[in-house]
C-alpha cells in the first residue's frame, strides 16, 4: 500500500491526543495491558480509555486479545514501537523533575530501560557503540553483521534466525530519546536483551515499568564481553 499524505495525517492524528500518546508510551515496555490499567496510567475514565484503545486497534497501532472478561492490548509490533520511540527522540523535551522520587525515576530510566523488546538508555547506546568499535557490526554498506559479529552473537546464544524467517530486520538503529544517539534494535537487539535478562545481567525494576537494573554480574559480563564500564548512577533527565 503506497504511503500518502492522508495516511500519514491519519496516523499522526491518532497520536495527537495526549491520552492516546500516554498509553502508547506505556506500552513500549512490551507487555500487554488491560484497559483499566491504561486508564489509570493516562488518568482518564475507563470508558474513555476503551474508546481510545478501540481507535488504536482499528488503525493497526495496537493488537488486542481477550481472556474471559478481560481485554488486553499491546503494540502491534516492533515497527510500531520503533515509530513511537523515534517520535519521542525527535520531539521529546527534557523536563526538570519536581521531586527527589521523580529525579531518581528519571535517572534510572535514562541509565537502562526497555524500548519495546530491546535495550535502551545509556547502557543500550554503550552496547551499540561497543559492537561498532569491536567490528562486530559494520556500517560500510548499511548496518550489517560482520563474520566476527555473527560468531559473537552465536557464542552468546543470541544468534540471528535463518534468513527469510520473518520481515523484521536483524539489525536496526533506534534513536534513543534520552541519549539522542542510536541503540540497537531489530531481532538481534531483542535477542541480546532476552539473553541478558535470562543470564541475570539485567533485572526489571518492579516499581518502575521499563526501567532495568544492571546487576553486578551484568557489569562484569558487559565489561568482559564488550569492554563497557559505566558509572552506577547518572544525573540524566528523561523526556516526557
Give a written overview of the molecule.
The protein has 240 residues and is an alpha+beta fold. It contains ten helices and eleven strands. A hairpin with a 2-residue loop joins strand 2 and strand 3. The model is unreliable at 234-240 (pLDDT under 50).
CA(first)-CA(last) distance: 33 Å
Overall pLDDT: 85
Strand content: 15-25%
Topology pattern, helix = H, strand = E: HHEHHEEHHEEHEEHEEHEEH
Q: Helices and strands: which structural class? A: alpha+beta
Reported for the largest beta sheet, the result is: 3 strands, antiparallel
Figure out the total of helices.
10
Residue stretches low in confidence (pLDDT < 50, at least 5 long) are: 234-240
Report helical residue fraction: 40-55%
Q: What's the total count of β strands?
A: 11
Overall geometric form? globular
Question: How are strands sequenced across the largest beta sheet?
Answer: 1-3-2
Radius of gyration: 18 Å
Amino acid at each position: 500500500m503506497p504511503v500518502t499524505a492522508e495516511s500519514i495525517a491519519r496516523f499522526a492524528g491518532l497520536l495527537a491526543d495526549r491520552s492516546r500518546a500516554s498509553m502508547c508510551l506505556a506500552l513500549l515496555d512490551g507487555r500487554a495491558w488491560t484497559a483499566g490499567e491504561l486508564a489509570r496510567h493516562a488518568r482518564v475514565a475507563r470508558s474513555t480509555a476503551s474508546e481510545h484503545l478501540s481507535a488504536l486497534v482499528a488503525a493497526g497501532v495496537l493488537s488486542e486479545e481477550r481472556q474471559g472478561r478481560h481485554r488486553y492490548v499491546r503494540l502491534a509490533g516492533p515497527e510500531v514501537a520503533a515509530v513511537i520511540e523515534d517520535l519521542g527522540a525527535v520531539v521529546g523535551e527534557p523536563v526538570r523533575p519536581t521531586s527527589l522520587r521523580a529525579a531518581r525515576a528519571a535517572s534510572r530510566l535514562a541509565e537502562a530501560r526497555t524500548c519495546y523488546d530491546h535495550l535502551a538508555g545509556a547502557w543500550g547506546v554503550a552496547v551499540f557503540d561497543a559492537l561498532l568499535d569491536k567490528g562486530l557490526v559494520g556500517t560500510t554498506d548499511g548496518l550489517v553483521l560482520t563474520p566476527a559479529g555473527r560468531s559473537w552473537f552465536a557464542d552468546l546464544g543470541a544468534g540471528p534466525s535463518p534468513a527469510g524467517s520473518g520481515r523484521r530486520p536483524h539489525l536496526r538503529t533506534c534513536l534513543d530519546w534520552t541519549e539522542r544517539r542510536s541503540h540497537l534494535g531489530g531481532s538481534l537487539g531483542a535477542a541480546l536483551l532476552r539473553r541478558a535478562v535470562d543470564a541475570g545481567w539485567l533485572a526489571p525494576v518492579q516499581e518502575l515499568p521499563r526501567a532495568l537494573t544492571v546487576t553486578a554480574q551484568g557489569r562484569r559480563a558487559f565489561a568482559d564481553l564488550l569492554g563497557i564500564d559505566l558509572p552506577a548512577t547518572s544525573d540524566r533527565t528523561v523526556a516526557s
